[in-house]
Write a structure and sequence with these properties.
Elements (H helix, E strand, L loop, with lengths): L10 E5 L5 H11 L15 H6 L9 E8 L5 E9 L2 H11 L1 H7 L8 H9 L8 H6 L3 E6 L8 H15 L4 E5 L5 H10 L2 E2 L7 E5 L1
Antiparallel strand pairs: 1-2, 2-3, 3-4, 5-7, 6-7
InterPro entries: Acyl_CoA_acyltransferase (IPR016181), Glycosyl_Hydrolase_84 (IPR051822), GNAT_dom (IPR000182)
Protein name: Acyl-CoA N-acyltransferase
């Protein structure tokens, strides 16, 4: 599946593969500080991706699409990933994903607050609210490298994901938002996302 911006950038959107995991992890780190790079905040720069990106090319019930730059050796420069069944995803990850990471990353290793925060999160992972699940069993995460933002690619990724989810018989999707990232909130509002009634303030969702 291909698409072009008004500037005809050589970008292709394709399904995410397990082999994309290192790229997803890198992009997640470079956008993990409210949309900016979190490199300086971490000694363990893989932690954000291990929570918010990599599981979605590793675990059951997951789906994903990536943007690749055809002129940069098909480098992955953005992604949208998620689960079609959040409760099933949570149950599997609780048994098979978070425990092994919690063992590998004990908080005693942390010298920086951000690392400690993620290491503690691995031991007490947040779950989707019942209000979000009522809206849709599906949730998503999206990240695009800054140099590729504000060119229409976020909309194209969401449209691609929506087409896929509708094909799975789903009629909506929700997400968790960093409350510090006002730019992302404005983008989602333009896309038609609204606050999920009864959910925490940082949850937004959309019906297709």
């Amino acid at each position: 599946m291909s698409a072009c911006t008004p500037f005809d950038m050589p970008i292709t959107i394709r399904k995410a593969l397990e082999a994309d995991a290192p790229s997803l992890s890198r992009i997640c780190l470079l956008t993990a500080n409210a949309g900016s790079t979190a490199e300086a905040l971490h000694d363990f720069g893989e932690l954000p991706g291990l929570v918010y990106a990599v599981p979605y090319v590793k675990l059951p019930t997951t789906w994903g699409f990536v943007m690749v730059d055809d002129l940069r050796d098909d480098e992955v420069v953005g992604y949208i990933v998620g689960s079609t069944d959040t409760r099933a995803f949570e149950a599997y990850a609780t048994e098979h994903w978070w425990p092994q990471l919690a063992e590998k990353y004990p908080p005693s290793l942390a010298k920086k607050p951000a690392d400690e925060q993620y290491m503690n999160l691995l031991r007490n992972m947040h779950m989707g609210s019942d209000a979000c699940i009522k809206l849709s069993p599906a949730h998503m995460h999206i990240n695009i490298l800054p140099s590729y933002q504000k060119q229409g690619w976020g909309r194209k990724l969401i449209d691609t994901a929506a087409d896929f989810l509708k094909g799975q018989g789903l009629d909506g999707v929700w997400l968790g938002l960093d409350p510090r990232n006002n730019g992302a909130r404005l983008f989602y509002e333009k896309m038609g996302f609204t606050h999920v009634d009864g959910a925490p303030d940082n949850n937004m969702g959309i019906k297709f």
